[in-house]
Design a protein that fits this description.
Blueprint: H1 5-14, E1 18-20, E2 32-34, H2 36-55, E3 71-74, E4 80-81, H3 83-89, H4 91-95, E5 98-101, E6 108-110, E7 115-121, E8 124-130, H5 134-148, E9 160-167, E10 177-178, E11 192-193, E12 199-201, E13 211-214, H6 219-224, H7 226-233, E14 239-248, E15 263-273, H8 278-295, E16 303-307, E17 319-325, E18 336-345, H9 347-354, E19 357-360, E20 363-366, E21 385-387, E22 392-394, E23 397-404, H10 405-416, E24 417-423, E25 429-435, E26 446-450, H11 457-468, E27 474-476, H12 482-491, E28 496-500, H13 502-507, E29 509-514, E30 520-524, H14 528-536
The structure holds one RNA strand.
Length: about 550
RNA sequence: GCGGGUGUAGCUCAACGGUAGAGCGGUAGCCUUCCAAGCUACUUACGAGGGUUCGACUCCCUUCACCCGCUCCA
């Protein structure tokens, strides 16, 4: 059943999962607060990820589907890092300029770096654009113009070039522009300023040189600590470094509840391996991460693994797959990204060694400025890896499974939202709302009730509560009718309720009630803990 | 970023240029022996700022937020 998004949003607010940030001042677009139950849910998502990916990983055995054994290590880096990190990584240029997008090729160009030439042919005057410069651009624009006007080599003189290369910034009407990778006219969008990184000041004086940025991704903290982790832990390639933490992007249009937020939490792994085995590792991580969401309850028909088309790949990527979920706020048939698994080659480590890289043909080379020096220099540190066994030195290739904790949490909430009918006290079916959360994710694992507030039942129930409390999140409630208390727990996804009744006073057994099936069974009160633990661990 | 719509109690919804009301919920008490029962009492709101007016939740302007469509989405 498809959840209505507004119902889920209302429930999240009503029961304390999610609130708008700064709500009493009217809210702030793109920022959200997790309430008392939401924080438990998100913590459970993060803990499941950390436990499954890092702490419970067995490096002595080959995991199902993996090409070999491997190690995992965790890290927690600062949010504000050296500005040079973002310059070398390419984020600074990408996030800090006037950019134009091509609607046809889906590529994005820096407005001031696109140049081109005016040409007239067959009575039509167009601007042929190029994202390279110099002789290369002359050649490329010539070639593109020939193709556009459908000319053969011998007809080259039909092209009337008007002046030499000029910047795209001199062209007023983009309707006459043939984009660098486009086949039709007018595919470039108007130039737009991109300040996608949040800027702040480190240092009390706050000059321009003190400008720093809140990280737009956690990944770079891992790359710049690659050598530190190698040197301090005795890990050997292949191994992965995991990190969870907040990232910040000044999104232009935050939309769809928490799906696209300006402050969000990532769960990222950078997995370092030998270039030769990297395709197998890529496949392993892609499949493993997909299975992870399935194992926590996302339904197969709403979750998909989508390999990117070749044209869709980033300039550095050898292969990328998205794990996507059919969120209820999307049109039918559309999916939203939960996680991207990317084969990034040696792009990241090389960037931090040599400086910002750009693609030239099939190769990645250091981008140069007008004087022929690196546009953004790297650290100059040797981040290559020496394999003691094979005596081989190489820059490891990287597989990056990068997940959004808030997006995963939202997907689990959407998936969990259910309505059915349960009989009321007269046996008449009434509507019931319940969150069918996986027990690992449920904010409250069990609720304990006395059936009625007398005859010594509250005392027994409180005893059970006290016994369970050190081991799991437990909720105690003795107010009102028991049916109402069940419904309240259903609405926040509590998998089990324990009820102390008159029979408890006779033989010590209590009723355990299941959220999804409404089934009830009896367990001795002293065995509650063990019984619940085995049920919750599945 | 553009266009359209919506903002009243925790939620769902009324009303009116002149004292803002209901249902559900919540709290407390009574009562209740397994799926939102009943009774009593209490609780809480006009998104924000400005203007018009004797008086604005209502009319006007600005702004903020949310929803829908387009655009965009490392």
């Amino acid at each position: 059943m498809a959840v209505q998004m507004d119902q889920l949003v209302a429930l999240c607010k009503r029961r304390g999962f999610l609130f708008q940030s700064s709500e009493i001042y009217g809210g702030l677009q793109g920022f959200w607060d997790y309430g008392p139950l939401g924080v438990e849910l998100k913590r459970n998502v993060r803990e499941a990820w950390w436990r499954d990916m890092v702490t419970s990983h067995n490096e002595l055995e080959i995991d199902n589907g993996a090409p070999a054994t491997y190690e995992m290590a965790g890290i927690d880096c600062s949010i504000i890092m050296h500005s040079q990190v973002w310059k070398s990584s390419g984020h600074y240029d990408l996030f800090h300029d006037y950019m134009v997008d091509c609607r046809e090729s889906k590529r994005r160009y820096r407005y001031d770096q696109v140049c081109g030439r005016w040409v007239t042919c067959k009575g039509q005057r167009i601007f042929v654009a190029s994202d390279v410069s110099g002789d290369e651009a002359i050649e490329l624009t010539q070639h593109k113009a020939m193709k556009f006007f459908n000319l053969r080599g011998k007809d080259a003189d039909q092209l009337a070039w008007d002046g030499t290369l000029i910047s795209l910034t001199n062209v007023p009407n983009f309707g006459e522009v043939l984009g660098p990778d486009a086949k039709t006219l007018g595919t470039l969008t108007e130039p737009r300023e991109f300040n996608l990184m949040f800027k702040t000041i480190a240092g009390a004086l706050g000059g321009e040189e003190d400008t720093v940025f809140l990280r737009p991704e956690t990944a770079q903290g891992i790359f710049v600590n690659f050598k530190n982790v190698c040197d301090s832990t005795r890990v050997r390639v292949p191994f992965g470094i995991a990190q969870m933490g907040k990232s910040f992007r000044n999104e232009i249009t935050p939309r769809n509840f928490t799906f696209r937020s300006r402050e969000f939490e990532q769960m990222e792994i950078e997995f370092f391996c030998h270039p030769a085995s990297s395709p197998q590792w890529y496949k392993y991580w892609r499949d493993r991460r997909y299975q992870w969401y399935l194992s926590l309850g996302l339904a197969g028909e709403r979750l998909r693994l989508r390999d990117h088309e070749k044209e869709e790949l980033s300039h550095y990527s050898v292969g990328t797959a998205d794990i996507e979920y059919a969120f209820p706020f999307l049109a039918p048939g559309e999916f939203g990204e939960l996680e991207g698994v990317a084969h990034r080659g040696d792009f990241d480590l090389r960037s931090h060694i040599e400086g910002k890289l750009v693609r030239k043909g099939d190769e990645l080379v250091v981008e140069l400025d007008a004087e022929g020096k690196p546009r953004h220099r790297g650290s100059g540190k040797d981040l290559s890896y020496f394999d003691e066994l094979t005596k081989e030195r190489f820059v490891p290739h990287v597989i990056e499974p990068s997940a959004g904790a808030d997006r995963a949490t939202l997907a689990f909430l959407c998936e969990a939202y259910n309505e059915d009918e349960a009989p009321d006290e007269n046996g008449k079916p009434t509507k019931r709302v319940f969150l069918k959360l996986h027990p690992r994710l449920a904010p409250i694992k069990v609720a304990v009730f006395p059936l009625v507030k007398k005859d010594g039942m509250p005392e027994v129930a409180r005893e059970i509560y006290k016994t369970l409390k050190p081991h799991m999140t437990v909720f105690y409630d003795e107010k009102g009718a028991v049916g109402r208390r069940y419904r309240r727990q259903d609405e926040v996804g509590t998998p089990f309720c324990i009820t102390v009744d008159s029979q408890t006073l006779e033989d010590g057994t209590v009723t355990v009630r299941d959220r999804d099936s409404l089934a009830q069974w009896r367990v001795h009160k002293d065995e509650c803990l063990g019984d619940l633990r085995s049920r919750l661990s599945t």
